[in-house]
Amino acid sequence: MLKSDLRPVPVRVTATSSEAGAYRYRKANPIDLRVSSRSGHAATGFLHELAHLIDHQGHYDKRSRVWASSVHPAFSEWRAAAARLDGRPFPGGSHRRRYFQSAQEVWARCYAQTVLLRSGDALLLEQLERLQRIDEPHVWPAKEFEPVSLQVELVFVRLGLTQLELPIAA
């Protein structure tokens, strides 16, 4: 459970096959989260877009359009841990690779993977293990990712967003 004064943000199911999801906003205000029912990745798509919402609501600079994952002090140790992750092999040109290496995208992928990892849900854990087995670029190998997942959890502690004690891995 999180402490927040954020108003409810609609989650809309789409039938697009071009993307697993989208977080839409106008300036500092969220509009909705969109999750594709046809992508084959509804859970990870939803978690990824939820991470963007958290990131955007944590900090948004209207001039630079920078979000919390890039500059907020609560994310600093996560940024350091994430910088040690191996770059994933995203196909496409340099613009696409830069996009997937941005703090916003790395945060969203780290958040989604951490939630899957910590969920305790057999179906979600199996999905994560399958993605790791096929070397899906949106996830990292388990051993490499463990220190980062701890830092993802600690971001919420540093932000004061937890009401419950988190079972943070040592």
Which descriptor suits the 3D outline?
A: globular
Cα gyration radius (Å): 15 Å
Q: Output the structural class.
A: mainly alpha
Q: What series of H and E elements makes up the topology?
A: EEEHHHHHHH
Count of individual helical segments = 7
Q: Strands of the largest sheet, in order across it? A: 1-3-2
Mean pLDDT: 89
Please summarize the sheet with the most strands: 3 strands, mixed
Runs with pLDDT <50, length 5+? none
Number of strands: 3
Beta-strand content bin? 5-15%
* Helix share, percent: 40-55%
> What's the end-to-end separation, in Å?
21 Å
What does this protein look like?
- Helix content is 48%, strand content 11%.
- With 170 residues, the protein is mainly α.
- It has a three-stranded mixed beta sheet, with helices on one face.
Summarize the structure.
By secondary structure, this protein is mostly helical. It has helices at 42-58, 68-71, 76-83, 94-101, 103-118, 122-133, 142-158, and strands at residues 11-14, 21-26, 29-36.
